[in-house]
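Notes, p. 3: input format for complexes.
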Amino acid sequence: MAPDEKTMRLLENARGSILKGRLPASLIADEALYKLELERVFGRTWQFLCHEDEIPNSGDYVVRYIADNSIIVARQQDMTIRAMSNSCRHRGTLLCRTEAGNESAFQCPYHGWTYRNNGDLIAIPAQQAVYGAAFDKSRLGLRALPMLDSYAGLVFGCVSDEAPGLDEYLGDMRWYLDLMMKKSPAGLEAWGAPQRWVIDANWKTGADNFVGDGYHTVMTHRSMCELGLLPPDNVAVSPAHVSLSGGHGAGVLGAPPGIPAPPYMGYPEEVVSGLSEGYGDDVHGELLKRTMFIHGNVFPNLSFLNAFIAKDGQSMPMPILTLRQWRPLDAARMEVWSWFFVERNAPEEFKQQSFETYVRTFGVGGVFEQDDAEIFQAITKGTRGELAGGVELNLEMGLDNLAPDPTWLGPGRPLASGYAEQNQREYWKQYFDYLATPRRDENV
Ligand code: FES
Ligand code: FE
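Output follows (444 residues plus FE2/S2 (inorganic) cluster):
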Protein backbone atom coordinates (compact mmCIF):
# COMPACT_ATOMS: atom_id res chain seq x y z
CA MET A 1 0.00 0.00 0.00
CA ALA A 2 1.57 3.27 -1.05
CA PRO A 3 0.73 6.17 1.28
CA ASP A 4 -1.30 9.05 -0.11
CA GLU A 5 0.36 12.32 -0.93
CA LYS A 6 -0.59 14.03 2.33
CA THR A 7 0.84 11.16 4.41
CA MET A 8 4.01 11.12 2.31
CA ARG A 9 4.47 14.85 2.89
CA LEU A 10 3.97 14.39 6.63
CA LEU A 11 6.54 11.60 6.68
CA GLU A 12 9.10 13.55 4.71
CA ASN A 13 8.67 16.52 7.07
CA ALA A 14 9.01 14.25 10.08
CA ARG A 15 12.14 12.69 8.61
CA GLY A 16 13.64 16.12 8.20
CA SER A 17 12.79 17.41 11.65
CA ILE A 18 13.35 14.42 13.94
CA LEU A 19 17.14 14.79 14.16
CA LYS A 20 16.53 18.39 15.19
CA GLY A 21 14.45 17.03 18.04
CA ARG A 22 10.97 17.63 16.70
CA LEU A 23 8.33 14.91 16.34
CA PRO A 24 4.78 15.52 15.03
CA ALA A 25 2.53 14.37 17.86
CA SER A 26 -0.16 13.07 15.52
CA LEU A 27 2.25 10.40 14.23
CA ILE A 28 2.47 8.56 17.57
CA ALA A 29 -0.77 6.63 17.13
CA ASP A 30 -1.93 7.48 13.64
CA GLU A 31 -4.64 5.15 12.29
CA ALA A 32 -3.71 5.77 8.64
CA LEU A 33 -0.05 5.00 9.23
CA TYR A 34 -0.77 1.77 11.08
CA LYS A 35 -1.30 -0.31 7.93
CA LEU A 36 1.85 1.17 6.46
CA GLU A 37 3.75 0.21 9.64
CA LEU A 38 2.59 -3.39 9.31
CA GLU A 39 3.88 -3.58 5.76
CA ARG A 40 6.99 -1.46 5.81
CA VAL A 41 8.21 -1.90 9.38
CA PHE A 42 6.87 -5.24 10.65
CA GLY A 43 6.96 -6.67 7.11
CA ARG A 44 10.74 -6.38 6.76
CA THR A 45 12.39 -6.16 10.17
CA TRP A 46 13.72 -9.04 12.24
CA GLN A 47 11.21 -9.85 14.95
CA PHE A 48 12.02 -11.80 18.12
CA LEU A 49 10.15 -15.11 18.29
CA CYS A 50 11.55 -17.05 21.23
CA HIS A 51 14.67 -18.08 23.10
CA GLU A 52 16.13 -21.41 22.01
CA ASP A 53 15.75 -22.62 25.59
CA GLU A 54 11.95 -22.32 25.33
CA ILE A 55 11.95 -25.25 22.88
CA PRO A 56 14.88 -27.41 24.03
CA ASN A 57 13.62 -30.85 22.88
CA SER A 58 12.67 -32.39 19.56
CA GLY A 59 8.96 -31.73 18.98
CA ASP A 60 8.79 -28.73 21.32
CA TYR A 61 6.93 -25.78 19.88
CA VAL A 62 5.65 -22.32 20.81
CA VAL A 63 3.13 -20.11 19.01
CA ARG A 64 4.37 -16.54 18.55
CA TYR A 65 3.33 -13.41 16.68
CA ILE A 66 4.82 -10.91 14.31
CA ALA A 67 2.17 -8.17 14.52
CA ASP A 68 -0.93 -10.05 13.30
CA ASN A 69 0.93 -13.08 11.91
CA SER A 70 0.51 -16.20 14.05
CA ILE A 71 3.59 -18.40 13.79
CA ILE A 72 4.47 -21.91 14.97
CA VAL A 73 8.13 -22.18 16.00
CA ALA A 74 9.08 -25.85 16.30
CA ARG A 75 12.19 -27.83 17.22
CA GLN A 76 12.75 -30.52 14.60
CA GLN A 77 14.01 -34.08 14.97
CA ASP A 78 17.48 -32.99 13.81
CA MET A 79 17.29 -30.25 16.52
CA THR A 80 17.13 -27.40 14.01
CA ILE A 81 14.33 -24.86 14.43
CA ARG A 82 11.66 -24.10 11.86
CA ALA A 83 9.00 -21.41 11.85
CA MET A 84 5.81 -21.48 9.79
CA SER A 85 2.48 -19.77 9.43
CA ASN A 86 -0.12 -21.10 11.86
CA SER A 87 -2.79 -21.06 9.16
CA CYS A 88 -4.30 -24.13 7.49
CA ARG A 89 -3.87 -24.20 3.71
CA HIS A 90 -7.44 -25.48 3.21
CA ARG A 91 -9.56 -22.58 4.55
CA GLY A 92 -7.07 -20.64 6.61
CA THR A 93 -8.25 -21.85 10.01
CA LEU A 94 -5.89 -21.14 12.88
CA LEU A 95 -4.22 -24.51 13.25
CA CYS A 96 -2.49 -24.74 16.61
CA ARG A 97 -4.55 -23.39 19.51
CA THR A 98 -2.15 -23.96 22.39
CA GLU A 99 0.65 -21.58 23.27
CA ALA A 100 3.31 -24.24 23.70
CA GLY A 101 3.75 -27.99 23.84
CA ASN A 102 5.38 -30.99 22.22
CA GLU A 103 3.84 -32.44 19.04
CA SER A 104 5.13 -34.22 15.97
CA ALA A 105 2.10 -33.04 13.95
CA PHE A 106 -0.74 -30.50 14.03
CA GLN A 107 -4.29 -31.40 12.98
CA CYS A 108 -6.68 -28.70 11.80
CA PRO A 109 -9.87 -28.51 13.90
CA TYR A 110 -12.06 -27.68 10.86
CA HIS A 111 -11.71 -30.66 8.45
CA GLY A 112 -8.72 -32.47 9.87
CA TRP A 113 -5.87 -31.76 7.45
CA THR A 114 -2.72 -32.74 9.30
CA TYR A 115 0.72 -31.20 9.06
CA ARG A 116 4.05 -32.53 10.31
CA ASN A 117 5.83 -30.10 12.65
CA ASN A 118 8.10 -29.09 9.75
CA GLY A 119 5.03 -27.75 7.90
CA ASP A 120 4.54 -30.62 5.43
CA LEU A 121 0.92 -31.58 4.76
CA ILE A 122 0.87 -35.31 5.55
CA ALA A 123 -2.79 -36.37 5.80
CA ILE A 124 -6.16 -35.33 4.37
CA PRO A 125 -9.35 -37.03 5.60
CA ALA A 126 -11.07 -39.00 2.79
CA GLN A 127 -8.32 -38.01 0.38
CA GLN A 128 -8.69 -41.04 -1.93
CA ALA A 129 -12.45 -40.58 -2.27
CA VAL A 130 -12.67 -36.82 -2.75
CA TYR A 131 -9.32 -35.62 -4.06
CA GLY A 132 -7.99 -38.82 -5.66
CA ALA A 133 -4.89 -40.81 -4.79
CA ALA A 134 -2.70 -38.68 -7.05
CA PHE A 135 -3.52 -35.42 -5.24
CA ASP A 136 -0.23 -33.61 -4.64
CA LYS A 137 -0.02 -32.70 -0.97
CA SER A 138 3.52 -31.42 -1.25
CA ARG A 139 2.36 -28.07 -2.68
CA LEU A 140 0.10 -27.40 0.32
CA GLY A 141 2.50 -27.29 3.22
CA LEU A 142 2.34 -24.52 5.81
CA ARG A 143 4.00 -21.36 4.57
CA ALA A 144 7.51 -21.15 6.02
CA LEU A 145 8.82 -17.90 7.45
CA PRO A 146 11.07 -16.55 4.66
CA MET A 147 13.85 -15.59 7.09
CA LEU A 148 14.79 -17.27 10.36
CA ASP A 149 18.03 -16.97 12.32
CA SER A 150 19.29 -16.67 15.86
CA TYR A 151 21.79 -14.65 17.84
CA ALA A 152 22.89 -15.36 21.42
CA GLY A 153 20.08 -17.90 21.76
CA LEU A 154 17.46 -15.40 20.58
CA VAL A 155 15.46 -16.67 17.60
CA PHE A 156 14.32 -14.00 15.16
CA GLY A 157 12.19 -14.23 12.03
CA CYS A 158 11.01 -11.99 9.21
CA VAL A 159 7.76 -12.37 7.27
CA SER A 160 9.43 -11.30 4.01
CA ASP A 161 12.88 -11.83 2.55
CA GLU A 162 13.59 -8.11 2.64
CA ALA A 163 15.56 -7.87 5.89
CA PRO A 164 19.35 -7.78 5.75
CA GLY A 165 21.12 -10.75 7.38
CA LEU A 166 20.52 -10.89 11.15
CA ASP A 167 24.17 -10.13 12.03
CA GLU A 168 24.14 -7.10 9.78
CA TYR A 169 20.73 -6.00 11.09
CA LEU A 170 21.77 -6.20 14.75
CA GLY A 171 25.19 -4.66 14.05
CA ASP A 172 26.77 -3.20 17.18
CA MET A 173 23.68 -4.07 19.20
CA ARG A 174 25.19 -7.57 19.36
CA TRP A 175 27.86 -6.22 21.73
CA TYR A 176 25.17 -5.10 24.19
CA LEU A 177 23.11 -8.27 23.74
CA ASP A 178 26.30 -10.18 24.59
CA LEU A 179 26.71 -8.07 27.73
CA MET A 180 23.33 -9.29 28.99
CA MET A 181 22.87 -12.70 27.41
CA LYS A 182 26.38 -14.21 27.47
CA LYS A 183 27.52 -13.81 31.07
CA SER A 184 27.70 -17.51 31.60
CA PRO A 185 29.18 -20.23 29.37
CA ALA A 186 26.35 -22.41 30.73
CA GLY A 187 23.86 -20.16 28.91
CA LEU A 188 20.51 -18.79 29.96
CA GLU A 189 17.39 -20.46 31.22
CA ALA A 190 14.05 -19.11 29.95
CA TRP A 191 12.19 -19.26 33.27
CA GLY A 192 8.53 -20.10 32.78
CA ALA A 193 6.29 -18.94 29.95
CA PRO A 194 6.38 -15.28 28.91
CA GLN A 195 3.87 -13.09 30.70
CA ARG A 196 1.66 -10.99 28.44
CA TRP A 197 -0.97 -8.35 28.76
CA VAL A 198 -2.89 -5.89 26.60
CA ILE A 199 -2.79 -2.14 27.15
CA ASP A 200 -4.45 0.74 25.33
CA ALA A 201 -1.23 2.21 24.06
CA ASN A 202 0.59 2.46 20.76
CA TRP A 203 3.52 0.00 20.57
CA LYS A 204 6.09 2.74 19.92
CA THR A 205 5.54 4.31 23.35
CA GLY A 206 7.27 1.31 24.96
CA ALA A 207 10.15 1.28 22.47
CA ASP A 208 10.71 5.06 22.81
CA ASN A 209 10.82 4.66 26.60
CA PHE A 210 13.24 1.73 26.75
CA VAL A 211 15.59 2.90 24.01
CA GLY A 212 16.82 5.86 26.02
CA ASP A 213 14.43 7.45 28.50
CA GLY A 214 16.32 7.56 31.78
CA TYR A 215 14.67 10.94 32.33
CA HIS A 216 11.29 9.56 33.43
CA THR A 217 12.60 7.37 36.21
CA VAL A 218 12.46 9.74 39.15
CA MET A 219 9.06 11.15 38.18
CA THR A 220 7.08 8.21 36.81
CA HIS A 221 8.57 5.85 39.42
CA ARG A 222 8.64 8.44 42.18
CA SER A 223 7.08 6.12 44.74
CA MET A 224 10.04 3.78 44.24
CA CYS A 225 12.46 6.66 44.91
CA GLU A 226 10.53 7.60 48.06
CA LEU A 227 10.81 4.03 49.29
CA GLY A 228 14.55 4.20 48.71
CA LEU A 229 14.39 1.56 45.98
CA LEU A 230 15.66 3.93 43.31
CA PRO A 231 18.25 6.71 43.52
CA PRO A 232 16.66 10.17 43.68
CA ASP A 233 18.76 11.40 40.76
CA ASN A 234 19.89 9.45 37.72
CA VAL A 235 21.90 12.16 35.98
CA ALA A 236 25.15 11.45 37.78
CA VAL A 237 25.40 7.68 37.84
CA SER A 238 28.44 7.07 35.55
CA PRO A 239 26.05 6.52 32.71
CA ALA A 240 26.24 6.06 28.99
CA HIS A 241 23.38 6.74 26.65
CA VAL A 242 24.47 4.90 23.50
CA SER A 243 23.04 5.24 20.02
CA LEU A 244 23.73 2.38 17.65
CA SER A 245 23.25 2.23 13.93
CA GLY A 246 19.99 0.71 12.71
CA GLY A 247 17.86 2.65 15.21
CA HIS A 248 18.95 0.45 18.11
CA GLY A 249 19.95 2.05 21.39
CA ALA A 250 20.99 1.27 24.95
CA GLY A 251 21.51 2.94 28.30
CA VAL A 252 24.13 1.58 30.68
CA LEU A 253 24.20 3.04 34.18
CA GLY A 254 26.59 2.64 37.07
CA ALA A 255 25.99 3.02 40.79
CA PRO A 256 24.80 6.41 42.03
CA PRO A 257 27.52 8.37 43.84
CA GLY A 258 27.64 7.58 47.54
CA ILE A 259 25.36 4.58 47.29
CA PRO A 260 27.17 1.31 47.99
CA ALA A 261 26.63 -1.27 45.28
CA PRO A 262 28.21 -4.64 44.67
CA PRO A 263 30.36 -5.25 41.59
CA TYR A 264 28.92 -7.17 38.65
CA MET A 265 25.36 -6.14 39.49
CA GLY A 266 25.39 -8.52 42.45
CA TYR A 267 25.52 -11.67 40.29
CA PRO A 268 26.58 -14.74 42.31
CA GLU A 269 30.11 -16.09 42.25
CA GLU A 270 29.06 -19.02 40.02
CA VAL A 271 28.19 -16.53 37.27
CA VAL A 272 30.95 -13.96 37.87
CA SER A 273 33.72 -16.58 37.79
CA GLY A 274 32.72 -17.58 34.25
CA LEU A 275 32.38 -14.10 32.73
CA SER A 276 35.57 -14.14 30.63
CA GLU A 277 34.67 -17.55 29.24
CA GLY A 278 31.06 -16.58 28.59
CA TYR A 279 31.91 -13.29 26.92
CA GLY A 280 35.04 -14.51 25.18
CA ASP A 281 36.83 -11.28 26.20
CA ASP A 282 37.58 -9.20 29.31
CA VAL A 283 36.06 -5.90 28.19
CA HIS A 284 32.45 -6.88 28.74
CA GLY A 285 33.30 -8.07 32.26
CA GLU A 286 35.15 -4.84 32.99
CA LEU A 287 32.02 -2.87 32.05
CA LEU A 288 29.64 -5.19 33.90
CA LYS A 289 31.77 -4.80 37.04
CA ARG A 290 30.68 -1.16 37.36
CA THR A 291 27.17 -1.48 35.95
CA MET A 292 23.84 -1.48 37.78
CA PHE A 293 21.28 -1.02 35.06
CA ILE A 294 21.16 -1.82 31.33
CA HIS A 295 18.16 -0.92 29.22
CA GLY A 296 17.59 -0.54 25.51
CA ASN A 297 15.67 -1.47 22.42
CA VAL A 298 16.38 -3.54 19.33
CA PHE A 299 14.63 -1.75 16.48
CA PRO A 300 11.69 -1.69 16.18
CA ASN A 301 9.97 -3.30 19.20
CA LEU A 302 12.16 -5.60 21.32
CA SER A 303 13.24 -3.99 24.57
CA PHE A 304 15.47 -5.31 27.32
CA LEU A 305 16.33 -4.64 30.92
CA ASN A 306 19.09 -6.07 33.07
CA ALA A 307 18.90 -4.33 36.42
CA PHE A 308 20.05 -4.50 40.03
CA ILE A 309 16.83 -3.81 41.85
CA ALA A 310 14.87 -4.67 45.02
CA LYS A 311 11.43 -6.23 45.02
CA ASP A 312 10.32 -4.34 48.15
CA GLY A 313 11.54 -2.19 51.02
CA GLN A 314 12.68 -5.19 53.09
CA SER A 315 14.58 -7.24 50.51
CA MET A 316 18.10 -6.88 49.24
CA PRO A 317 18.38 -5.72 45.62
CA MET A 318 19.45 -8.32 43.10
CA PRO A 319 19.83 -8.62 39.34
CA ILE A 320 16.96 -9.41 36.97
CA LEU A 321 17.04 -9.93 33.21
CA THR A 322 13.94 -9.45 31.07
CA LEU A 323 13.09 -8.99 27.41
CA ARG A 324 9.84 -7.42 26.35
CA GLN A 325 8.19 -7.16 22.99
CA TRP A 326 5.66 -4.47 22.11
CA ARG A 327 3.34 -6.34 19.74
CA PRO A 328 0.96 -4.00 17.89
CA LEU A 329 -2.73 -4.95 17.89
CA ASP A 330 -3.90 -1.70 16.35
CA ALA A 331 -2.84 1.94 16.35
CA ALA A 332 -3.87 2.45 19.98
CA ARG A 333 -3.47 -1.03 21.51
CA MET A 334 -0.62 -3.42 22.05
CA GLU A 335 0.08 -6.76 23.63
CA VAL A 336 3.15 -6.69 25.82
CA TRP A 337 5.17 -9.90 25.98
CA SER A 338 7.65 -10.21 28.80
CA TRP A 339 10.27 -12.94 29.24
CA PHE A 340 12.41 -13.61 32.29
CA PHE A 341 15.87 -15.17 31.98
CA VAL A 342 18.43 -16.35 34.48
CA GLU A 343 21.90 -17.85 34.15
CA ARG A 344 21.65 -21.63 34.09
CA ASN A 345 24.56 -22.17 36.47
CA ALA A 346 23.28 -19.74 39.15
CA PRO A 347 22.18 -21.31 42.46
CA GLU A 348 18.51 -22.35 42.56
CA GLU A 349 17.78 -19.95 45.44
CA PHE A 350 19.18 -17.05 43.39
CA LYS A 351 17.03 -18.03 40.39
CA GLN A 352 13.90 -18.09 42.51
CA GLN A 353 14.66 -14.77 44.21
CA SER A 354 15.57 -13.10 40.91
CA PHE A 355 12.29 -14.31 39.37
CA GLU A 356 10.28 -12.99 42.32
CA THR A 357 12.06 -9.65 42.00
CA TYR A 358 11.18 -9.53 38.29
CA VAL A 359 7.52 -10.38 39.01
CA ARG A 360 7.20 -7.60 41.59
CA THR A 361 8.95 -4.96 39.48
CA PHE A 362 8.62 -5.58 35.75
CA GLY A 363 6.21 -8.54 35.55
CA VAL A 364 2.57 -7.96 34.56
CA GLY A 365 1.65 -6.71 38.05
CA GLY A 366 5.07 -5.23 38.79
CA VAL A 367 5.16 -1.73 40.23
CA PHE A 368 7.45 -0.29 37.55
CA GLU A 369 5.44 -1.92 34.81
CA GLN A 370 2.20 -0.47 36.15
CA ASP A 371 3.72 2.99 36.35
CA ASP A 372 5.02 2.82 32.77
CA ALA A 373 1.87 1.28 31.28
CA GLU A 374 -0.25 4.14 32.63
CA ILE A 375 2.06 6.67 30.96
CA PHE A 376 2.16 4.76 27.63
CA GLN A 377 -1.64 4.85 27.58
CA ALA A 378 -1.67 8.53 28.53
CA ILE A 379 0.66 9.37 25.61
CA THR A 380 -1.57 7.47 23.20
CA LYS A 381 -4.66 9.33 24.42
CA GLY A 382 -2.84 12.62 24.93
CA THR A 383 -1.58 12.93 21.36
CA ARG A 384 -4.97 12.36 19.73
CA GLY A 385 -7.30 15.04 18.48
CA GLU A 386 -6.63 17.99 16.25
CA LEU A 387 -5.43 20.25 19.04
CA ALA A 388 -2.84 17.98 20.67
CA GLY A 389 -1.96 16.14 17.47
CA GLY A 390 -1.14 19.34 15.66
CA VAL A 391 1.98 20.18 17.67
CA GLU A 392 5.53 18.92 17.50
CA LEU A 393 6.80 17.02 20.53
CA ASN A 394 10.21 17.91 21.88
CA LEU A 395 13.19 15.53 21.74
CA GLU A 396 15.98 18.11 21.91
CA MET A 397 17.67 16.88 25.08
CA GLY A 398 21.44 16.62 24.58
CA LEU A 399 21.18 17.77 20.97
CA ASP A 400 24.00 20.31 21.03
CA ASN A 401 25.25 20.33 24.60
CA LEU A 402 26.46 16.75 25.17
CA ALA A 403 29.59 15.38 23.51
CA PRO A 404 30.40 11.70 22.87
CA ASP A 405 32.33 10.04 25.70
CA PRO A 406 35.77 8.96 24.36
CA THR A 407 36.41 6.67 27.35
CA TRP A 408 33.39 4.44 26.74
CA LEU A 409 34.30 0.74 26.45
CA GLY A 410 31.63 -0.38 23.99
CA PRO A 411 30.69 0.47 20.40
CA GLY A 412 28.20 3.12 19.33
CA ARG A 413 27.89 6.85 20.02
CA PRO A 414 27.93 7.24 23.82
CA LEU A 415 26.84 10.35 25.68
CA ALA A 416 27.96 10.57 29.30
CA SER A 417 24.57 11.44 30.70
CA GLY A 418 21.79 9.51 32.34
CA TYR A 419 19.35 11.82 30.64
CA ALA A 420 19.46 12.36 26.87
CA GLU A 421 17.26 11.90 23.83
CA GLN A 422 19.83 11.03 21.17
CA ASN A 423 18.70 7.39 21.14
CA GLN A 424 15.07 8.37 20.74
CA ARG A 425 15.87 10.70 17.85
CA GLU A 426 17.86 7.95 16.09
CA TYR A 427 15.09 5.45 16.79
CA TRP A 428 12.40 7.64 15.23
CA LYS A 429 14.68 8.50 12.31
CA GLN A 430 15.03 4.82 11.51
CA TYR A 431 11.27 4.36 11.89
CA PHE A 432 10.54 7.19 9.42
CA ASP A 433 13.16 5.84 7.01
CA TYR A 434 11.39 2.48 6.99
CA LEU A 435 7.96 4.07 6.56
CA ALA A 436 9.06 6.34 3.72
CA THR A 437 10.90 3.64 1.76
CA PRO A 438 8.78 1.36 -0.43
CA ARG A 439 9.22 -2.39 -0.16
CA ARG A 440 10.76 -4.18 -3.13
CA ASP A 441 7.48 -5.97 -3.73
CA GLU A 442 5.41 -2.76 -3.82
CA ASN A 443 4.29 -1.56 -7.22
CA VAL A 444 4.84 2.12 -6.77
FE1 FES B 1 -8.17 -26.76 7.86
FE2 FES B 1 -10.28 -27.38 6.35
S1 FES B 1 -9.67 -25.44 7.13
S2 FES B 1 -8.81 -28.66 7.20
FE1 FE C 1 9.92 3.09 33.54
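The radius of gyration is 23 Å.
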